[in-house]
Design goal:
alpha+beta; 6-stranded mixed sheet; 4-stranded antiparallel sheet; about 45% helix
């Protein structure tokens, strides 16, 4: 199982990681959020399906405009092309496994009966951005056992493991399809207006975070009013546009503190903080320590991993 500590995304939040290859479009990962920048996986989306399973602790998972808490033993299905993020719960270790794979792993081809009857309708169904898999939705533990079987087969890589992975994942999709067949059959294929607006506004912020940004600038990126901009952020992301900008700037500053030897004052300017004192205060409020303390902490953690 591959250990990951960072998710690379483009300006439009599309994840650039290649999950498996054309011959076997599947990959499994192990993630401990304490190793991630700011203890979180930032907003991103991918064309692949994803299953995530909590091993230890809990996480707060943001999926579009919803916040879901995953506890130890819980799993979750995330549909293709869905914007999502993960944050470590305060004071807890948050360790989870994920498996990300192309819909073709299950359907074989989009023209097959599996693709036309089950997989494509699920992808297009905007009423199913995710599905929890826990003791309520999976009372006999069958889906969670199948997900574990897929993880284990992939880890061992014994001859024929690809069959085992595909069979286990396909069985989970069979159960999900049966549980949600009425929604999938009647669901809407049209994305919500807020979904498109949020992607436009976040793309603008990620491209201009180094500059001075006003609320009007963010709203203009989605061709909406400032009031509608604030409403959209609060509903979809649970935060204000201004707070999101601050959080994103601090996250980028944390990356530079870890990955470069640039002076703190230079990093402050490079991430849109036009004042070293304001940068230090904001960073400490969000991260619980000063920029220099954070740099020393990360340097010590990196040394312990060598």
């Amino acid at each position: 199982m591959r250990i990951v500590t960072k998710v690379e995304v483009e300006d439009n939040f599309h994840e650039t990681t290649k999950h498996g290859d054309a011959m076997f479009p599947y990959a499994s990962y192990y993630a401990d959020l304490k190793q991630y920048m700011c203890g979180e996986v930032p907003w991103h989306w991918h064309e692949e399906f994803e299953f995530a399973s909590m091993i230890l602790g809990s996480v707060e998972m943001k999926i579009q405009n919803e916040m879901i808490t995953l506890q130890t033993g819980d799993s979750i299905f995330i549909n293709a092309n869905i914007l999502h993020a993960v944050k470590q719960c305060e004071g807890e270790q948050s360790v989870f496994r994920s498996q990300v794979f192309s819909p073709l792993l299950v359907s074989g081809s989009y023209e097959s009966i599996y693709g036309q009857k089950y997989i494509m309708p699920l992808i297009r169904c905007k009423e199913i951005p995710y599905r929890l898999i826990n003791h309520q939705t999976d009372p006999d533990g069958k889906m969670r056992a199948l997900l574990l079987a897929a993880y284990q087969a992939y880890d061992l890589e014994e001859y024929g493991y690809e069959y085992e992975v595909r069979e286990a994942i396909s069985r989970v999709f069979q159960i999900l399809s049966i549980q949600n067949r009425d929604i999938i059959r009647t669901g809407s294929a049209t994305p919500s207006a807020d979904e498109g607006r949020i992607k436009d506004m976040l793309t603008f912020i990620h491209s201009h975070y180094q500059d001075k940004i006003e609320l009007r600038d963010i709203a203009d990126a989605a061709h909406i009013s400032e009031r509608e901009c604030s409403r959209c952020f609060t509903k979809s992301l649970g935060t204000t546009p201004f707070q999101y900008v601050l959080n994103y700037r601090v996250r980028r500053a944390a990356e530079l503190l870890t990955e470069t030897r640039k002076p703190v004052a230079e990093i402050a300017y490079a991430t849109g903080f036009f004042g070293n004192s304001y940068f230090g205060k904001t960073f400490k409020n969000l991260m619980g320590m000063t920029p220099n303390e954070y740099r020393l902490l990360k340097a010590g953690q990196d040394a312990s991993l060598r």
